[in-house]
Amino acid sequence: MTTLQPVLDGAGTTPPQPPRVTATYTRLAARQAARADALALKALLAPATGRTRIAQLLTLIASAATVVPFIGIVEIGRTLVAGSTADTSRIWTIVAVVIGALLVRTWASGTALTLTHLADGDLQRSLRRRIVDTLGRLPLGWFNGTSSGEVRKAVQQDVAELHFLVAHAAVENTGALATPIFGLAYCFSLDWRLGLLAIGTAPVYLLVYLWLGRDVRVQMERMNAGLARISATIVEFIAGVAVVKTFGETGRAHQRFADAAEEFNDGFAEWMGPMVRVKAASSIFIEAPTVLLVNLAGGYWLVRSGWVAPIDVLGSTLVAMTIPAAVLAVGYSAGIRTQAQAAAGRLVRLLDQPKLKVSTNPKLPQGNSVEFDGVSFSYDGTSTVLHEVDLTLEPATVTALVGASGSGKSTLATLVPRFHDATAGTVRVGGVDVREIDPAVLYRHVGFVLQDVQLLGVSVADNIRLGRPGATSEEVYQAAEAAHVHDRILALPRGYDSVVGEDAHFSGGEAQRVSIARALLADTPVLVLDEATASADPDSEAQIQAALSRLIAGRTVLVIAHRLGSIVGADNIVVLDAGRVVEQGRHDELLARGGRYAAMWHVYTDGNPEPVPSLRSPEQNVEGAR
User: Fold this and answer.
1) pLDDT, tens only, 187-246
2) Residue 35: is it exposed, middle or buried by C-beta count within 10 angstroms (0-12/13-18/19+)?
3) Same domain for 73 and 133?
4) Are 146 and 232 in the same domain?
5) Which domain holds residue 230?
6) Which one, of 337, 315, 297, 323, lies nearest residue 38 by Cα?
7) pTM of the predicted model over 0.90
8) Contacts from 592-601 at CB under 8 Å and sequence distance 24+?
9) At the N or C end, where does the chain have fewer CB atoms within 10 A?
């Protein structure tokens, strides 16, 4: 244990540990994770606990009623064995009691399952609402680092993982355990030797099952990691299939997949091989034929010894035959519970994500200016990305952010619509700290057009209306015309009613113009623009640039510039380097200084001899023409 302590304490750099120590540490970490997931599951299931307990009580009644027919069979047998002296009225009384017990069991078990299914429906609805509420209050920057697949998995699969546990497991486990217990109580009442005989084979199976499951969490994590590597190689091959085929790397790409699959298969076989053999051998002890053979053979010996009557052996054997199904049901539920705990852990981690703080006394922005006052920012709390940035965007001006990759351009721009909150300093819109503006008000005041366009699987008209759901059709048409995409939409099979992904398929440039139409319709006075023409072809670039010129007119614009030629007409060009503002001014002023921007400009013009349309408002374009 002393060897493990530095690892557990997280103290500095520890020397390489032997495999046995590493395995022990892995088991400890897995147990800690399992405990955390178990607590998460308990917390998530708390709202359903009340109805679940009532359902379990009803199941206990149903289980007790289930044993009554076994007792009835034994008692009828005793009566019939009496021969001519058999009491017919007693037999009919027993039959009536058995029928009553079966009716009670049917009612109790049916009511119990109804309660748990209602509890499950309410729980799933509540969880999905909590998830949607959480997603609605998370910083927009959180979604940049989280795939849509993870969100979909949480909303659909992880919530669904709890269904069996709530709707079935509580009732079925109670029944699976209670029925044999009531039955065994009856067996022991007949003769303690019959009771021991009925459960004689079960301990062997249970001990083996517990031994096999000692490392199941660690092994499942390894298996999931292996599947993730396989998935990654598949995605890599499909995403780059054109490049792979062009450069003759098909065999190598296939080999990476084959290696990942082989590694997974070897690990899986190493884990499952011994387990399957041991479990197959141990399962013999819980199979119905084995249980039947043991009870009949043992019962025969007990009868020959004069300790019990044959009819008692019949009753205990019938009870013993319920044990295999009970053990298998509990084992299945244990596996389901392990999956549910893992899902609960993921759900709780999602629900506990830091939410975007909303002011209890929100303020309204006064004007369209944007200010960065001593703004610093860190994603992880240790590495600072922005350092004390001071910058003012005057109303109705275009400010361009330029700099090398990783200089902090996108990070600075996304602080305006609160994709993240500044670690230090203040970002103001209209003279008000963005943290003191209600998010709904902020997004009506600050719009953004990103380079990575996202169109929803709804009609084209509804995609454009996202910023203003109540906009009329005429307003939608006008926005599309201004964005130079109206004619393309009319050419679709159902025009504006065409659904994206079904009968509306846009190229990158066309999708960008649809997003610009959306921003035009939203009509926000402040706009954050991730230069939309960075990867467009010349024809699309001209149309997008024309649409952008209409979009920025009269607005306060902050544009992330990827190509310097597109922002030479900006009112202010801000040069960032390692998260700091090193230069700012108009294009001509910065060139005259001969500083960082001038060096960037010379590199840019050497690589781009053809002029690039500049991002300018219609008024600037008119002045340029004169």
Assistant:
1) 888 888 888 888 777 777 667 666 655 555 555 556 655 555 655 566 555 555 544 444
2) exposed
3) yes
4) no
5) 200-307
6) 337
7) no
8) 597/402, 597/573, 600/402, 600/564, 600/575, 601/564
9) C
Q: How many CB atoms lie within 10 A of CB 289?
A: 9
**Residues 378, 430 within the same domain:** yes
Q: Is residue 488 part of a domain?
A: no
d(CA 51, CA 166): 10
pLDDT in tens, 150-179: 666 677 777 887 888 888 888 888 888 888
| Distance in angstroms (rounded) separating the CA atoms of residues 319 and 407 | 74
Residue 11: the pLDDT is: 42
Query: Of 579, 575, 580, which is closest to residue 591 (Cα–Cα)?
Result: 575
- Are residue 564 and residue 595 in the same domain, yes or no? yes
Same domain, 374 and 351: no
Q: Are residues 563 and 452 in the same domain?
A: yes
3-state secondary structure of 210: helix
Residue with tokens 């052996």: 313
**Residue 63 in contact with residue 185, Cβ under 8 Å?**
no
Question: Which residues lie across from 150 on neighbouring strands?
Answer: none
Residue at 320 is within a domain: no
Report yes or no on 57 lying in a domain.
Answer: yes
For 366, the token pair is 């006064």
Residues in the chain: 626
| Residues 173 and 208 reside in one and the same domain | no
Task: Please return the burial class of 572, using the count of CB atoms within 10 Å of its CB with bins 0-12, 13-18 and 19+.
Answer: buried
Instruction: Give, in order, the Cα–Cα distances in Å from 519 to each of 157, 476, 526, 550.
Output: 34, 11, 11, 11
Q: How far is CA 408 from CA 269, 386, 389, 621, in A?
A: 48, 6, 11, 30
Number of domains in the chain: 3
Question: Does any domain span residue 507?
Answer: no
For residue 112, give Cα distances in angstroms to 44, 166, 183.
Answer: 20, 11, 21
Do 608 and 551 belong to one domain? yes
Over 457-480, what HEC string results? Answer: CCEHHHHHHHHCCCCCHHHHHHHH
Domain holding 588: CATH number?
3.40.50.300
CA 196, CA 194: separation in Å to the nearest integer? 5
